Design the sequence.
């Protein structure tokens, strides 16, 4: 995929979830620096006012809520009118985190998360597929996660949303190949981000209350330990998505190589001991065992 910095030959990219502090924000700047015409979107477009790069054409900011079909269709129509009915790259980045033990989840919040992480992507693909096909060399970039591969404790529903996204992308890749649309899933490891900024605590009534202190100390911040700088991540992802032939899955971010190695060569059970120890589940087993002995 070649790019040009001027005129109608500039490749176009739409990125969802470009609020400051996230990877969408950095990816918008990186695509922009590579000469693409960038449509940066967020539910609150006023959050994007400083998405500019000196010496380059201004980015175009659009309001977009992937959970509302009317918003998605309005963005589609706006971009079609600006580009002559074409879009080269769609980056499905908008995401929502939810870190709660499986037995403690609020189903309403889980549904809200799936609306963003899974159904939002499906809406975007359905509505923008004609524009991507019209480009003659379209790409769909889905921002997945290593949590969709490994059993990351206390994130079962978030992990499930990412696993669903991975599976969706795998099939979508085959279905859109005849139309010269490539689909790439980014298996994202630890990256500096504000996606998990909401602090949650294990409640006293939870069966995990005995390790509430470990959860409070490690779960919310673990993904940020040794995390890859967001701009480095953006450069790697953008470079991969601009190649003539992209990878089906592209692993990047902290711990992504280790996750790939374990999953590929050691089997799923290999994660269990590491993660149980890391997040206090081994300690919880000991506590429960000791309580049974005392009774």
Sequence:
């Amino acid at each position: 995929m070649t790019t040009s910095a001027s005129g109608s030959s500039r490749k176009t990219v739409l990125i969802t979830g470009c609020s400051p502090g996230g990877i969408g924000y950095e990816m918008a700047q990186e695509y922009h620096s590579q000469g693409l015409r960038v449509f940066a979107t967020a539910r609150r477009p006023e959050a994007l006012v400083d998405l500019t790069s000196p010496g380059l054409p201004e980015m175009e900011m659009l309001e977009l809520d992937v959970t509302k079909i009317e918003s998605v269709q309005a963005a589609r129509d706006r971009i079609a009118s600006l580009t002559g009915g074409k879009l080269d790259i769609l980056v499905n980045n908008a995401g929502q985190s939810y870190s709660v033990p499986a037995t403690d989840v609020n189903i309403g919040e889980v549904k809200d998360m799936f609306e963003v992480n899974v159904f939002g992507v499906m809406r975007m693909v359905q509505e923008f597929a004609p524009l991507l096909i019209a480009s003659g060399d379209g790409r769909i970039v889905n921002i997945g996660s290593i949590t969709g591969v490994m059993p990351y404790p206390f994130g079962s529903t978030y992990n499930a949303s990412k696993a669903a996204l991975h599976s969706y992308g795998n099939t979508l890749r085959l279905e859109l190949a005849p139309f010269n649309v490539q689909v790439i899933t980014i298996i994202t490891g630890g990256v500096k981000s504000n996606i998990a900024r909401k602090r949650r605590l294990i409640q006293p009534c939870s069966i995990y209350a005995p390790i509430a202190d470990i959860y409070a100390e490690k779960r919310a911040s673990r993904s940020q330990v040794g995390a890859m700088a967001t701009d480095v991540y953006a450069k790697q992802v953008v470079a991969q998505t601009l190649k003539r032939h992209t990878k089906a899955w592209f692993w990047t971010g902290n711990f992504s190589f280790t996750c790939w190695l374990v999953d590929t060569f050691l089997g799923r059970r290999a994660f269990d001991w590491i993660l149980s120890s890391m997040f206090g589940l081994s300690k919880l087993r000991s506590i429960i065992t000791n309580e049974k002995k005392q009774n």
Notes: The two ends are 68 Å apart (CA to CA).
